[in-house]
């Protein structure tokens, strides 16, 4: 793109005189929608009032013929009607009105215009200067100064030009402040999305680290059973013994690769985690600890599954209940909490619900990514997760965790 100053000035001049209009910007009463509904009718009534005032002044006081007075009154009001949606068009109409509506003005007036035209022109110029960029702003000021320099009395000319310069400075500051706030809002939204994405990735990494321990346990059992099979079983043929040795070696190689993977997944701030991963059998201890901390929580656990719940499912259920209790303690102070665990033949159901809070929470609300972590744990196992308010004002989270479904990518 050509950045030569002359080319930039010529493009700005074309934009000023006949180019596309400036963006309308946010409505003035956008923060008060009830008042915004009356803005259009009130504005039309005000424009009609200005029209009659201008018509009366120019026909009675200035002695203009009625057709000319009607034309000048319409030219006075037209820029104000176009201002909300077409600010540059409103300014062009204003300059035209300032150049034409100057006949028969009394000699004792500071300018050759009626008060409605003078005040309306100031309003139009102020709005336009707050919405256009600097090259267009310079042309708007320069062109607006033409009727001021040619038609305003020399004694008042300096004051009008000073007012025009002040409007230009204030308008540029307003435009830059608005652009800065828009850029800040866009950056804030981008940061929030990036924070949410980072929270998801961190939670998936944590899930992978925890699942490593579960899988490593099974791989260790495979390696030990394969190595001890020739000694535990009698009359094992040599090829079978060799196959057991190969299975044990493959299992240990897999364990080595998994340890390397764990080193990649572990963050720099997290040290080695030597504690065993919890499962459903540890729910009772967690519930007791929550009660000792003052959280009124009850556990309703029923089982319809004869076999043992798979370790990844038990771990995910434990973490979901843990996060659900933490959220209840944080956001529903004093509320009763009920934890329900249903083990079935093909899956495990977990639900944590709390009654309405007795008092408003006074502590920090946390990072707000607990629901993200619970949803990631459920979907990683191919399950489902729901969370939302209850009709009575409480809140509930629920997860269905299948035993053998294909999970998503972790």
Low-pLDDT runs: 361-367, 406-410
- Gyration radius, to the nearest Å? 38 Å
Range of strand content: 5-15%
Separation of termini? 46 Å
Oligomer: single chain
Number-wise, the strands total: 5
Largest sheet: 5 strands, mixed
Number of helices: 12
Listing every helix as H and every strand as E from the N terminus to the C terminus, the arrangement reads HHHHHHHHHHEHEEHEE
Strand order of the largest sheet: 1-2-3-5-4
**Average residue pLDDT:** 81
Overall spatial form: elongated
Structural class: alpha+beta
Domain count, please report it. 3
Q: What's the helical proportion of residues?
A: 55-70%
Description:
By secondary structure, the chain is of the alpha+beta class. It has twelve helices and five strands. It has a five-stranded mixed sheet with strand order 1-2-3-5-4, with helices on one face. α3 (39-61) packs antiparallel against α4 and α4 (66-82) packs antiparallel against α5 (87-100).
Q: Can you describe this structure in just a few lines?
A:
This protein has helices at 5-17, 33-36, 39-61, 66-82, 87-100, 115-129, 134-151, 154-232, 238-265, 283-292, 311-331, 370-380; strands at 297-303, 337-343, 347-354, 384-389, 395-402. By secondary structure, the chain is of the alpha+beta class.
């Amino acid at each position: 793109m050509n950045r030569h100053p002359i080319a930039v000035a010529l493009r700005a001049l074309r934009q000023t005189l006949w180019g596309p209009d400036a963006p309308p910007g946010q409505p003035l009463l956008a923060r008060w929608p009830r008042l915004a509904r009356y803005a259009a009718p009130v504005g039309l009534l005000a424009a009609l009032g200005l029209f009659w005032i201008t018509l009366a002044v120019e026909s009675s006081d200035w002695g203009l013929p009625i057709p000319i007075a009607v034309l000048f009154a319409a030219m006075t009001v037209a820029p104000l009607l176009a201002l909300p949606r077409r600010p540059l068009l409103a300014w062009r109409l204003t300059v035209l009105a300032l150049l034409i509506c100057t006949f028969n003005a009394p000699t004792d007036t500071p300018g050759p215009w009626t008060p409605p035209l003078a005040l309306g022109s100031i309003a139009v110029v102020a709005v336009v200067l707050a919405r256009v960029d600097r090259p267009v702003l310079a042309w708007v000021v320069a062109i607006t100064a033409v009727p001021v320099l040619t038609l305003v009395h020399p004694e008042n000319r300096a004051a009008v030009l000073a007012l025009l310069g002040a409007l230009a400075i204030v308008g540029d500051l307003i435009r830059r402040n608005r652009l800065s706030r828009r850029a800040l809002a866009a950056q804030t939204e981008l940061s929030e999305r990036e924070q949410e994405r980072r929270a998801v990735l961190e939670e998936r990494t944590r899930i992978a680290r925890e699942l490593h321990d579960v899988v490593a346990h099974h791989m260790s059992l495979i390696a030990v059973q394969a190595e001890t099979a020739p000694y535990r079983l009698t009359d094992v043929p040599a090829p079978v013994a060799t196959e057991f040795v190969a299975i044990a070696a493959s299992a240990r190689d897999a364990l080595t690769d998994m340890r390397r993977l764990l080193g990649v997944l572990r963050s720099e701030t997290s040290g080695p985690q030597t504690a065993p991963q919890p499962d459903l059998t540890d729910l009772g201890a967690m519930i007791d600890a929550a009660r000792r901390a003052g959280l009124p929580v009850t556990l309703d656990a029923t089982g319809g599954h004869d076999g043992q719940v798979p370790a990844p499912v038990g771990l995910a259920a434990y973490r979901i209940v843990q996060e659900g209790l933490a959220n209840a303690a944080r956001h529903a102070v004093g509320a009763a909490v009920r934890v329900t665990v249903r083990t079935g033949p093909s899956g495990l159901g977990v639900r944590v619900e709390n009654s309405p809070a007795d008092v408003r929470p006074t502590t920090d609300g946390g990072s707000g990514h607990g629901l993200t972590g619970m949803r990631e744990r459920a979907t990683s196992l191919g399950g489902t997760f729901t969370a939302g308010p209850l009709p009575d004002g409480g809140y509930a989270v629920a997860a269905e965790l299948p035993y053998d479904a294909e999970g998503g990518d972790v």
